[in-house]
Task: structure prediction
Amino acid sequence: MMKIALTGSIGMGKSTVARMFEDAGIRVFDADAIVRELQGPGGALVEAIGARFPGTVAGGALDRDRLAQTVLDDPPELAALEAIVHPAVRDAREAFIDRNRGAPALLFEIPLLYETGGEAEFDKVIVVSAPADVQRARVLDRDRMTPGKLESVLRRQVPDEDKRCRADFVVDTGIDLSTTETQVREIMTCLGLPGRG
Result:
């Protein structure tokens, strides 16, 4: 089984590219979706996060905005949150691999792959990238996103140029979708993966 990591900075189009691989028949593990589930209503990590970060949980629900305000510009607090979240995500990833042992390849959408030093665990790394102006416009179009918050996020992420240099493949999402889809098909062909659609 080939394990492929898909990564890229905020607003680069990772989820769009992951869906293209999924539509082509590759099973996808979405780390962000797992985190949302673990931190959502009734999530397995809500109690632990509330205990470590008082005031971020009310009525059994995690206030994600308040948690972000608490950790975004405080590296020790962010590290404390990651110490709670990352092992649970790793367990979910291992369970996903176990459920899909017969697949020729699995794709793992992991936004902070390089930031957490996780690239060595994968056979290939695909970086999703777009010009900075496109990235900025996409991110600032999101609910509750501000220029200051975007800058704070970008400061914690490995620069796009560095990610591109370290990748086995780069998918450019700053152009039309059909061109991006062509790039995905070319990567699958290069890796010898059967596709559908």
